[in-house]
Amino acid sequence: MAIARTGVFVDDYLEYSSTLAAELQRLLSTMRELDERAHGIINQTKEQTRYCLGMPSHYSKKVIHEDDEAEFEKMKKEIEASQENALSLCTEKVLLAQQAYEL
């Protein structure tokens, strides 16, 4: 009777372990994709930030037009949205890393 249960246990273990490598590979490749997307968003955000820093500020001697002000606000909102998106991707990547560790 004990041998029969052991045989079932071994079969279950072998079935689980054969899918483990595929599951781990899937998690790691998903993490890689998320990482690439996050880096792309972060680089885009850096460029947008540099552009905004180059715009005339309220305290500069340059004349500020309303169009510049509207463009600045639009860019600022885009930067904030990009940062939230990058943070979300990185959070998802951490969750996947935890799942991979548990496997």
Descriptive account of the structure:
With 103 residues, this protein is mostly helical. It has a domain at 22-54 and 66-102. Helices cover 87% and strands 0% of the residues. It has helices spanning 2-54, 66-102. α1 (2-54) runs antiparallel to α2 (66-102). The longest helix is centred in the N-terminal third of the chain and has 53 residues, at 2-54. It starts with a helix and ends with a helix. The relative contact order is 0.13. The model has no long low-confidence stretch (mean pLDDT 82).
Number of strand segments? 0
Shape descriptor:
rod-shaped
In helices, the fraction of residues equals: over 70%
User: In whole angstroms, how far apart are the ends?
Assistant: 30 Å
Spell the H/E element sequence. Answer: HH
Pfam families: ING
Protein name: Inhibitor of growth protein N-terminal histone-binding domain-containing protein
Keywords: Chromatin regulator
GO biological process, one term: chromatin organization
Key words describing this protein structure:
rod-shaped, mainly alpha, 103 residues
